Amino acid sequence: MSEVVATPVPMPAKRRAAQLFMLAGAVAIVMAAYANVGLAVDGAIPSGMLTYGLSLGGLMLIAYLVLAKFAPWADPLILPLVTLVNGLGLVMIYRLEVGGQEEASATNQIVMTGVGVVLFTVTLIVLRDHRALQRLTYTAGFIGLILLLSPLIPGLGREFFGARIWISIFGFSIQPSEFAKIALVVFFAGYLVAKRDVLALAGRRLLFIDLPRARDLGPVIITWVVAIGVLVLQRDLGSSLLLFGGFIVMLYIATQRTSWVLIGILLFVGGAFIAGQLFDHVGDRFEVWLNPSAPEFYDREVGGSYQLMQGMFGMGAGGILGTGLGQGYPQKIPLAYSDFIFAAVGEELGLTGLMALLLIYALIVERGLRTSIAARDPFSKLLAGGLSFVLAWQLFIIVGGVTNLIPLTGLVTPFMSQGGSALLANWILIALLVRMSDAARRPPPQAIQDEGLTQVFQR
Amino acid sequence: MNGTLKRAAVACLVMFGLLMLNVNYLQALKAEELRSDARNIRNYYDRYDVQRGRITAGGTILAQSVEKKKGDFRFVRNYPDGKVFAHVTGFFSPESQSAIENSENRYLDSTHPDLLLRRGIDLFTGEPTRGANVEVTINPRAQKAAHEALSASGKRGAVVALNPKTGAILTMVSLPTYDPNVLSGTDKPTVFGAYNKLDKDKTNGPLVNRAINRTYPPGSTYKVLTAAAFLEDDTSRDGQTIVPAPQVLDLPNTTADLPNSGGAACGGGQVPLVYALERSCNTPFGKIGMDLGYDRMAEQAAKFGVGQPLAVPMSVSQSDVGPKEDQAALAQASIGQRSNQMTPLQMAMIAAGIANDGKVMKPHLVQKITDAKNDTIEEAEPEELSEAVSSETAAKLRQMMVSVVNNGTASRAQISGVEVGGKTGTAQTVQGKAPHAWFISFAPAQDPQVAVAVIVESGSAGTDASGGQTAAPIAKAVMEAVLNK
């Protein structure tokens, strides 16, 4: 028997202390921003600052302790970054509430943040091994579909701002598409892991691309029909784009076939084009995008560019350094507390603030993708990759829309926009990423020294 | 799968990169265009974001910015006695401003380069920037007295009072007036509606400052200037110099004649100059004008400031003696008719010049500008505009004008214990309309503290005596207020 050489395996550091330090930093930044708003608006530190600060700090401490106990190897950066974004969103909503935007409610948002953190910890405690989700592939798919289509159920669905994307239960309004997003990514991951070999089989070769076999197009067509259905029946271009884009990219990651991406884009653009011809609200968005400052769009009552331009006026007023928290007029931007919160931040924190914010989001996504690359099994890779991409994709759709990079479609800005559903769903999404990063960074099972050939695997 | 995952990561990177580029484009390159877009309401809110300086007059606040606890507008303009001082302060509407609010705007809103240092210090000490305060030369008591007296006549008109020694404008009243508080509201539709209504009222013209922006034929008050030219022409002349005063003056090359007011005789046909002024006879002054010629008359007018562009700091409409025509026109212009057009301010300057030993001081409305810390940034220095007549001529004219008040048409301007000099006027306008009543004066005659011009539009029954009835008491009220009588 040869002797096992005891070479020390490099262990990824847990970096718990660094995480706690960064978490405290994030809470401190948020509290300073709070004080800033109060000083600018009333000339005094807001009376609720200690309550808000302690609530946020307490919540994050709970999240940290649960994470340290149940996912000790988790990525140390994700929680502090999300805390920072969530906190800045809170401050902005508080600022809008103080500024007189009636729908903005910081109290509501902090309560929802609390529930979100509870869901985060519950997910971490209950879901000890995320691979359990793989067994729930089709259940997740079914739940996702039901959630996505639930606003269409008569008596349950509610229509706001022309989009039928809300349901009302026991007096609570819920936006189910945000939860559907997670369920469907779980479904796609499970499904694609099982079928990726089949889907990767090449059919005919046309020019430079290998076309898939016609019979494998089934799932793509089904997803496409659902996405276009959401677009047409719920008038929700944003969710439709988010869902279909996420699916296509996950398909690409799983099969490594560019042809899927091209087919997906062609299908969606074609569908959207036909929808644009048939339904005014889709076509209008496109025209408005090309020339938002034209008076004919600006003055249009419904489907015009008024909102978009108000957001851009705010960002223009902010300039490079911003007006300073509490010193601009973000409350004049319609929906500044939800879809247009990014523009509101742009006005008061300026280009500097927005660049920092985008970098924070980019870092969260990067940590997610890193988890995915480090993951050891295909399901984890696909799930982590899918969730991270969907987060980035959602941000691209809404921020791109608000800044007129792409046509405006309604979606919430993750962790910042006011609204319980999105906040809860995204905290669950983060819990899943944290859980997977814990698994990915956990040191691989090692041969226990002096025990000969017997190796013990850690599960 | 790592290869495709890395490609997906690159796609994410590209998406974030595009977002960042676009945000830079919006907030750095396109920011100015977005900021200055007329539809960007922030420009409108910014107007109310700085605490604008006060406009004060001798301790009385004419305009101030009041902080609002609620609402979108932080500081709203308030005019405690708006209607009385409206043509001095002007208004501060959502998109424009007028009068002092306009001409001193950059001091009031603190954007003037002179305030750069102050703003820099405020930035360091963290104090909010406040606009500079403007102290105007108005005497609030006299302004109120003028406003009340002119309002009591129920007519349109204007009153201007000057400190003859400095040129400081003590009173500037124009009726009808408006309430600047209404035009300085923050609600655009309300303000613009109110403005358009005032602006459309061309008959009453409440937005027009009649004191400086409307010209009228000065009528008999102009005889003072004709007399000044006559005395300047030959220093041996004085009030006792005998001048021809026919009942009717024949105007050469026309069928028309120049009669005295009401066709009356003027003494015995040969009268002392002072008598002609007391009775306000037309024929002697028409003849003097014709004898001196257009150029001499115009030159004398120019020496009193006529035709010179003026800003007090609001720009003043130009007064004009009319073009060079024939002798007949000159005779009429010499008694303040024909194309002779003067602003009330110009007439006050004539009275003030005579009161101030012949020196006309530059009229001004701004006394002092102080920053929020009460440090003086700018203070008005009395400035001589021109020497209109010699001090001897001025003394002779003063004596004659005192005589007008004591013995002539302006007895209602007499103030007990104070010697007042003055001259009434009645200016014909359109046929069939009542003439304008004028009065110019100064007091006390030995050491003049105040010079006044009053015009009451269509305020006369047609004779100089009635001009003295309407306009002279108003001037008296103002002089009394200035002299604390």
UniProtKB/TrEMBL annotation, chain A:
**Compartments where located:** Membrane
Q: Name one GO molecular function term.
A: lipid-linked peptidoglycan transporter activity
Is Heme set as a keyword in this record?
A: no
User: What membrane topology is annotated for this entry?
Assistant: Multi-pass membrane protein
Per UniProt, the keywords (alphabetical) are:
Cell cycle, Cell division, Cell shape, Membrane, Transmembrane, Transmembrane helix
Q: Which organism is it from?
A: Nonomuraea dietziae
Recorded hits in Pfam families, A to Z, give:
FTSW_RODA_SPOVE
Could you identify this protein by its name? Cell division protein FtsW (Lipid II flippase)
TrEMBL record, chain B:
Recorded hits in Gene3D superfamilies, A to Z, give:
DD-peptidase/beta-lactamase superfamily, Penicillin-binding protein 2a (Domain 2)
Q: Is Glycosyltransferase among this UniProt entry's keywords?
A: yes
Q: Which residues form the Penicillin binding protein A dimerisation domain?
A: 52-134
State the name under which the record lists this protein: Peptidoglycan glycosyltransferase
* InterPro entries, per database record: Beta-lactam/transpept, Beta-lactam/transpept-like, PBPA_dimer, PCN-bd_Tpept
Any GO MF annotation of the entry: glycosyltransferase activity
* GO CC field: plasma membrane
User: What is the organism lineage in this UniProt record?
Assistant: Bacteria, Bacillati, Actinomycetota, Actinomycetes, Streptosporangiales
Q: Which GO terms describe its biological process?
A: cell wall organization
Q: Which organism is it from?
A: Nonomuraea dietziae
Q: Where are the transmembrane segments?
A: none
Q: Which residues form the Penicillin-binding protein transpeptidase domain?
A: 157-480
Record EC number = 2.4.1.129
Pfam families attached here?
Answer: PBP_dimer_2, Transpeptidase
* Presence of keyword Protein transport: no
Tell me the superkingdom of the source: Bacteria
Q: Which UniProt keywords apply?
A: Glycosyltransferase, Transferase
